[in-house]
């Protein structure tokens, strides 16, 4: 590999999970690709453009639910702290939520807010999905 590529790889290694998620989102927007399609199929899928999509199917989802899917036992306390910082739950309620996954952490959140919450929880070690 060339020096330029090695430098990019080294830079990528230094990113936090939240920064990496933001990078993927930016790449998807700039290059009009879907990174989840690459992960699932190994092939780059071009997103439909406005030119070839019927007008009624362009409606974008604006509200998202952040679901806490799993909490590894060694990471439970760190995840519990993040859940408390993201919600108005007391210690007992947050502990019950973390122990009874899968559970929604935030409902009807904006895409940006949902991504931020997911990033914080994943950084603490949780498995999170956005629906």
Automatic annotation (TrEMBL):
The keyword Ribosomal protein applies. Pfam families: Ribosomal_L12, Ribosomal_L12_N. NCBIfam families: L12. HAMAP family: Ribosomal_bL12 (MF_00368). GO terms for cellular component: cytosolic large ribosomal subunit. Keywords: Plastid, Ribonucleoprotein, Ribosomal protein. Residues 4-39 form the Large ribosomal subunit protein bL12 oligomerization domain. Residues 64-131 form the Large ribosomal subunit protein bL12 C-terminal domain. One of its GO terms (biological process) is translation. Belongs to the bacterial ribosomal protein bL12 family. This is 50S ribosomal protein L12, chloroplastic. GO terms for molecular function: mRNA binding; structural constituent of ribosome. It comes from Bornetia secundiflora.
């Amino acid at each position: 590999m060339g020096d330029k590529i090695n430098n990019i790889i080294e830079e990528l290694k230094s990113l936090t999970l939240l920064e990496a998620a933001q990078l993927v989102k930016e790449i998807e927007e700039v290059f009009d690709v879907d990174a989840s399609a690459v992960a699932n199929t190994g092939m780059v899928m071009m997103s439909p453009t406005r030119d070839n999509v019927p007008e009624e199917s362009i409606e974008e989802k604006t509200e998202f639910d952040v679901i806490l899917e799993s909490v590894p036992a060694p990471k439970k306390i760190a995840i519990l702290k993040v859940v408390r910082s993201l919600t108005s739950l007391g210690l007992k309620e947050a502990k019950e939520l973390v122990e009874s996954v899968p559970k929604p952490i935030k409902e009807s959140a904006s895409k940006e807010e949902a991504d931020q919450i997911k990033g914080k929880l994943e950084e603490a070690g949780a498995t999170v999905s956005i629906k």
